[in-house]
């Protein structure tokens, strides 16, 4: 296994073991009413939206960018889908509308970054702030409740004995792997993230790649938004997807992709998202008061990040680690 | 500084000037549209209502100038109100409470600075952990709003300092203005301040130039933590309560204010006066919405987002055209 | 030369990086008042030695004596305070700060913690005046050219009472006049008893200024010699440790076997970059561009590749007018470009050799049409062999390669596209002598095979050796186009540059 993935995998295993200690049947999966049931299935099901958002975020971060607006896109897409359904639109059309709007919003982010040349963190801050307001505008500050059975399937239904949400996340994961690793999108993204100017001079159309990537991130967020709204059968412009961008960024970083761009790991991101989701589940299952959820999250995040930090390992375990130095360079230091 | 007296304004001042121009334009447009808007007290009220944000944004400016970011400020503000309320209710003297709260803030900032500097964890992630930690501590202390009844705090909340002509400000404004003045002095007149700029300009170079980069980075996060705690105290004066849900999303307002003020998030470029203008503009938007009366609160977010977009685009146009 | 006690004595210095021995038992003795050259190929350990000396890296073994006392620096600041000042190859200053701050920050005059701006500016101006520079010290450093920034860096290094001044390739971005100015300053310092450790790839400069030299090869010391006692050929032999016959063979100029016109630029220009110029490039022709740094050589290359937009003029390829607006368009016309700054503009250091090599081909195909892995492997394998890229591992990260091998990776990236015009901007700068010869031979071979090459180099001998025709640039103008017949010599080129084309 990739060395970078070692620590998040260890942390995930420890969390699962901890759960097993408090809840002996934690790892068991049983079949009830023709569906799989169990804590592991729940982790995957509740973690599906985060996995989706994190996949898109991985590609954005690999280009050297960041997308703060995904949480707002989650809220907008959920609000639009519910509003359309509550006004009598068919489920498929409503979902298509929501996802299409998400795609447009993502392309807007990409336009600001790639064409206007605004720093990604600032460019997506615009939609993060304004988008939350837009979502509330769509729902008129209320919570829109929908009772459509077809819509409920997306976040709460089952297919092939598994929750539909898990399958949807798997499909998106497979699509992402296909786009980046079977096709050449991954190479071009890592190239742009590794050195934008050199990529331009190698003939890359980095604009197109950046817009594609931001649109893809928003598309993932849009699907996640529909999933979240479907799961609770309602749209809440104020709270849906709140702070999910931070969790997604964390998942990406825990998964070993650097915020500076370049190399990325989709497997690592999924692992990272599962660590975060398992953590939340663990806190409930071992009976820690829910108020302290954030406290535990802070500690685990700090632990994982510290363990991944070469500088920390060098100080903490000076014997076992190889000396940490800059990579060997010839006479010319890499200029910033 | 003699820069503004020159015939041609140096390029580095342009973003700040644009921000200032748009602030004046907004104020005039508001005055033309709403009865009673065009008054000095309206501007003073913006200061009064946003004194805590101003202090927080000053700390954020230090961090952003080094090329970092601090996501923890909102949570640290909330923690400060919470700790202050709990300690006051436990009968601590106000002065001791203030000292303890400021030390906690500075200590948290220093801790994050250590993670960033010594363990090379990206500022975004380290301060995100700090954000979770501080907010988590709030909820651990208590999930309800705790009222503050201490006479010193209520006095700070209710005192009106007259400026003549019926105009007044709160003591918090004086504190905020003092913080801005001290920070501006530190940034422009001391070695520490110039090292902040140097670090943001090119950290590796600054290190090879023999500048104390490590101390500076620890310093800015400590300052930001300190400013957040101080901002929390000002918020406690203003709200007279400690609450874990205070200042949710304040880090966004602070970052938005700094960005609108023309400071680059990549570090090394920007001025404190820009941050002050950025805070004033955010405050003015809220004032406009309250004057309008019929607009729902989410319009604030939409307007702030739009304005952020407009400012960024304008700065972009100006800086590229001047190249 | 006095036989004084050495001011600086390094003994038995060793330094390991993961998997690599960067320095192995290296000795270095520098006497007060001498210019001591540190010579070696890329990867010989010069930079590592300097970094160990100045406290950037700790040494694994060995001792450093400064003035007879053992020292060990934890940071560049400590080294500076002890009297060892360093100017690095890339300008290591802060572009957003003023010139005065860049010279004095960290040692600025203060009163009660407050910076005294007026004395600070005066002192900075004095320091610059000592280098014959008159700058606005309140202006941000970024306003000035790289060469001036380099001089500011030297001014900063001199601001401390340096007893040892380390100059790590300070001349690579300076033009001839600026180099002379620097040498004047160096001689001045030498007279004051300052020891100067000087690293340069330019042999002529070393022979002009250095008193003694220490030669490193593969992390080991080859020996130290008074400059006068070691000829250039011997020096090169000691640096590369191999027979020089292959270098000599290149002295024969390849025969000009040019055919039809490939590309014709007519009054092409870019405001603020290069004045309108006309240039014809024929198939199989090597066109050299000679000129000083900043003369517009790189701008010509960038316009022909579409890296910058032209603001006027036209280009025809095979007689058909084309508009070279972007690199992609240039690539469809089979033009390739290896930029001057390999690391900033050429390579993606975190990607592998294979990925870097297939990048341009993949970019041309678009991300929806991936190049099959077997085909990638074949292509990369072929060019690793043909260009002798070392290590011969397609999955090695490019950042771990030496400068010469990185240049070869960049060449391979373009050669797999089978370009008709290959633009090489300083392809041999900062790489070792062996790789340099290989690249020169490659250019000759490619042109023999019918490829046109636009060859830019600061070294006139190299331009003369390879080109069929030389364009001379000065002050952002193409001032002359000279056929490379027997009468063209480096002297003629220098005179042409000096006279500005009017003879």
Can you tag this structure with a few keywords?
heterotrimer; A: 336 residues; mainly alpha; ABC transporter involved in vitamin B12 uptake, BtuC; 14 helices; 5% strand; globular; B: 323 residues; 13 helices; 4 strands; nucleotide-binding (chain C); translocase (chain C); ABC_carbohydrate_import_ATPase (chain C); Sugar ABC transporter ATP-binding protein (chain C)
Q: Can you give a write-up of this model?
A:
The complex is a heterotrimer of chains A (336), B (323) and C (503). Chain A has helices at 6-22, 39-62, 70-86, 91-116, 120-139, 149-156, 164-182, 185-194, 196-201, 206-232, 244-254, 266-285, 293-308, 310-316; strands at residues 30-32, 35-37, 143-145, 158-159, 162-163, 234-236. Chain A is mainly alpha-helical and 336 residues long. Chain A has a single domain (36-314), classed as ABC transporter involved in vitamin B12 uptake, BtuC (Orthogonal Bundle), CATH 1.10.3470. Chain A has a two-stranded antiparallel ribbon. Chain A has a two-stranded antiparallel sheet with strand order 3-6. In chain A, a hairpin with a 2-residue loop joins strand 4 (158-159) and strand 5. Chain A is globular. Chain A starts with 5 loop residues before the first helix and ends in a 20-residue tail after the last helix. Chain B has 323 residues and is mainly alpha-helical. Chain B has one domain (3-321): ABC transporter involved in vitamin B12 uptake, BtuC (Orthogonal Bundle), CATH 1.10.3470. Helices cover 72% and strands 3% of the residues of chain B. In chain B, the strands form two sheets. A two-stranded antiparallel sheet of chain B has the order 1-4. In chain B, helix 1 runs parallel beside helix 12 (272-292), helix 3 crosses helix 10 and helix 12 runs antiparallel to helix 13 (298-321). The longest helix of chain B is centred in the last third of the chain and has 27 residues, at 213-239. Chain C has 503 residues and is α/β, with parallel strands linked by helices. Chain C has three domains: 8-243, 3-Layer(aba) Sandwich (Rossmann fold); 244-334 and 419-503, Rossmann fold (3-Layer(aba) Sandwich); 345-418, no CATH class. Helix content of chain C is 35%, strand content 25%. Chain C has helices at residues 46-53, 76-81, 99-104, 117-130, 146-159, 176-191, 203-209, 232-240, 245-249, 297-305, 327-332, 342-346, 353-365, 373-386, 403-415, 433-448, 460-466, 490-499; strands at 8-17, 20-30, 35-39, 61-66, 69-71, 84-87, 110-111, 114-115, 164-168, 195-199, 212-217, 220-226, 261-270, 274-282, 286-290, 312-317, 320-322, 335-338, 421-425, 452-456, 469-474, 477-483. In chain C, strand 11 (212-217) and strand 12 (220-226) form a beta hairpin. In chain C, helix 4 (117-130) packs across helix 5 (146-159) and helix 13 (353-365) packs across helix 14. The longest helix of chain C has 16 residues, at 176-191. Chain C is globular, with a radius of gyration of 24 Å. Residues 243-250 of chain C have low confidence and may be disordered. The interface between A and B is large, with 47 and 51 residues.
């Amino acid at each position: 296994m990739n060395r970078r993935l070692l620590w998040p995998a260890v942390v995930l295993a420890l969390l699962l073991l901890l759960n097993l200690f408090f809840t002996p049947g934690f790892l068991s999966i049983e079949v009830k009413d023709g569906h799989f049931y169990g804590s592991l299935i729940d982790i995957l099901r509740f973690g599906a939206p985060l996995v989706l958002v994190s996949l898109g975020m991985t590609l954005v971060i690999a280009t050297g960018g960041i997308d703060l607006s995904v949480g707002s896109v989650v809220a907008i897409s959920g609000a639009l889908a519910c509003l359309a359904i509550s006004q009598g639109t068919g489920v498929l059309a409503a979902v298509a509308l929501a996802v299409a709007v998400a795609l447009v919003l993502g392309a807007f982010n990409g336009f600001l970054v790639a064409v206007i040349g605004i720093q990604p963190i600032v460019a997506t801050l615009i939609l993060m702030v304004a988008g939350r307001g837009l979502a509330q505008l769509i729902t008129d500050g209320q919570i829109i409740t929908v009772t459509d059975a077809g819509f409920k399937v997306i976040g709460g239904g089952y297919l092939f004995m598994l929750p539909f949400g898990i399958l949807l996340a798997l499909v998106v994961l497979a699509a992402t792997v296909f786009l980046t690793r079977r096709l050449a999108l991954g190479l071009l993204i890592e190239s742009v993230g590794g050195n934008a100017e050199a990529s331009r001079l190698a003939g890359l159309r980095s604009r197109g790649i950046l817009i594609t990537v931001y649109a893809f991130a928003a598309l993932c967020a849009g699907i996640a938004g529909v999933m979240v709204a479907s799961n609770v059968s309602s749209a809440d412009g104020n709270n849906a997807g709140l702070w999910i961008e931070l969790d997604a960024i964390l998942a990406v970083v825990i998964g070993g992709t650097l915020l500076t761009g370049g190399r990325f790991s989709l497997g690592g991101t999924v692992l990272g998202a599962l660590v975060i989701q398992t953590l939340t589940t663990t806190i409930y299952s071992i009976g820690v008061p829910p108020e302290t959820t954030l406290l535990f999250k802070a500690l685990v995040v700090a632990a994982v990040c510290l363990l991944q930090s070469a500088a920390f390992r060098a100080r903490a375990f000076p014997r076992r680690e190889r000396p940490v130095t800059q990579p060997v360079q010839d006479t010319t230091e890499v200029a910033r | 500084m003699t820069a503004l007296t020159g015939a041609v304004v140096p390029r580095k001042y342009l973003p700040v000037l644009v921000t200032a121009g748009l602030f004046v334009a907004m104020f005039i447009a508001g005055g033309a549209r709403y009865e009673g808007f065009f008054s000095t007290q309206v501007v003073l009220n913006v200061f009064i209502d946003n004194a805590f944000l101003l202090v927080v944004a000053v700390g954020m400016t230090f961090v952003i100038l080094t090329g970092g970011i601090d996501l923890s400020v909102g949570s640290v503000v909330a923690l400060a109100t919470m700790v202050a309320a709990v300690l006051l209710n436990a009968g601590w003297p106000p002065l001791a409470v203030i000292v303890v709260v400021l030390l906690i803030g500075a200590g948290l900032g220093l801790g994050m600075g250590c993670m960033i500097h010594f363990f090379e964890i990206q500022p975004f992630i380290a301060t995100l952990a700090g954000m979770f930690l501080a907010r988590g501590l709030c909820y651990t202390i208590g999930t309800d709003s705790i009222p503050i009844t201490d006479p010193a705090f209520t006095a700070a909340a209710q005192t009106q300092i007259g400026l003549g002509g019926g105009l007044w400000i709160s003591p918090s404004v004086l504190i905020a203005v003092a913080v801005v003045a001290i920070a501006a002095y530190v940034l422009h007149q001391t070695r520490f301040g110039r090292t902040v700029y140097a670090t943001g300009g090119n950290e590796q170079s600054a290190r090879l130039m023999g500048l104390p980069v490590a101390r500076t980075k620890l310093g800015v996060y400590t300052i930001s933590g300190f400013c957040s705690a101080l901002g929390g105290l000002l918020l406690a004066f203003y709200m007279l309560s400690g609450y874990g849900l205070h200042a949710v999303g304040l880090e966004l307002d602070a970052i938005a204010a700094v960005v609108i003020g023309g400071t680059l998030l990549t570090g090394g470029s920007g001025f404190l006066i820009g941050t002050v203008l950025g805070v004033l503009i955010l405050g003015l938007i809220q004032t406009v919405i309250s004057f309008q009366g019929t607009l729902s609160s989410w319009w604030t977010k939409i307007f702030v987002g739009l304005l952020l977009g407009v400012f960024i685009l304008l700065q972009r146009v100006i800086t590229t055209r001047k190249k | 030369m006095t036989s004084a006690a050495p001011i600086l004595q390094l003994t038995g210095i060793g330094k390991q990086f993961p998997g690599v021995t960067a320095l192995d038992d290296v000795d270095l003795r520098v006497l007060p008042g001498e210019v001591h050259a540190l010579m070696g190929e890329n990867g010989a350990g010069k930079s590592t030695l300097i970094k160990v000396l100045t406290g950037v890296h700790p040494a694994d073994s060995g001792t450093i004596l400064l003035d007879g006392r053992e020292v060990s620096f934890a940071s560049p600041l400590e080294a500076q305070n002890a009297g060892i000042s360093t100017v690095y190859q890339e300008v290591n200053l802060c572009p957003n700060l003023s010139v005065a701050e860049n010279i004095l920050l960290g040692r600025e005059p203060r009163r009660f913690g407050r910076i005294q701006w007026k004395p600070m500016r005066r002192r900075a101006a004095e320091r610059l005046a000592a280098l014959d520079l008159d700058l606005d010290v309140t202006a941000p450093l970024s306003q000035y050219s790289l060469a001036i920034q380099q001089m500011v860096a030297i001014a900063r290094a001199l601001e401390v009472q340096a007893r040892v001044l380390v100059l790590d390739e300070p001349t690579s971005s300076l033009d001839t006049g600026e180099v002379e100015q620097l040498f004047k300053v160096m001689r001045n310092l030498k007279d004051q008893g300052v020891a100067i450790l000087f690293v340069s790839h330019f042999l002529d400069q070393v022979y002009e200024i250095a008193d003694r030299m220490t030669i490193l090869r593969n992390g080991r010391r080859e020996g130290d010699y008074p400059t006068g006692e070691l000829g250039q050929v011997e020096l090169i032999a000691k640096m590369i440790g191999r027979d020089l016959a292959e270098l000599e063979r290149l002295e024969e100029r390849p025969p000009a076997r040019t055919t039809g016109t490939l590309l014709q630029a007519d009054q092409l220009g870019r405001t603020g970059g290069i004045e309108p110029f006309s240039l014809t490039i024929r198939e199989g022709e090597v066109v050299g561009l000679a000129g000083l740094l900043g003369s517009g050589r790189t701008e010509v290359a960038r316009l022909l590749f579409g890296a910058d937009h032209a603001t006027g003029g036209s280009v025809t390829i095979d007689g058909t007018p084309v508009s070279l607006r972007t690199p992609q368009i240039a690539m469809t016309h089979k033009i390739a470009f290896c930029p001057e700054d390999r690391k900033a503009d050429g390579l993606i250091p975190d990607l592998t050799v294979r990925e870097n090599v297939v990048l341009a081909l993949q970019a041309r195909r678009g991300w929806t049409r991936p190049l099959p892995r077997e085909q990638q492997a074949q292509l990369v394998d072929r060019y690793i062999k043909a260009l002798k890229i070392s290590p011969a591992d397609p999955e090695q990260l490019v950042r771990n390669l030496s400068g010469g091998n990185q240049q070869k990776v960049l060449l391979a990236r373009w050669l797999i596209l089978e370009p008709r015009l290959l633009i090489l901007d300083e392809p041999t700068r900062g790489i070792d002598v062996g790789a340099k010869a290989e690249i020169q031979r490659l250019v000759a071979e490619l042109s023999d095979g019918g490829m046109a090459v636009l060859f830019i180099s600061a070294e006139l001998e190299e331009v003369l050796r390879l080109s069929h025709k030389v364009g001379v640039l000065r002050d952002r103008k193409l001032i002359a186009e000279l056929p490379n017949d027997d009468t063209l010599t480096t002297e003629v080129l220098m005179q042409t540059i000096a006279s500005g084309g009017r003879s």
